[in-house]
Amino acid sequence: MNIPWARSLWHEGTLPDQRVVAIKMSKITDASQVGQFINEVVILTQINHRNVVKLLGCCLETEVPMLVYEFVSNGTLFQHIHKMTGVSSSISWEDRLRIAAETAGALAYLHSAASTPIIHRDVKSTNILLDENYTAKVADFGASSYGVVLAELLTGEKPLSFERSEEQRNLATHFIVSMKENGMLELLEAGILNEGKTEQVHSRCTCNEMS
Question: Of 17, 30, 95, 122, which is the active-site residue?
Answer without folding.
Answer: 122
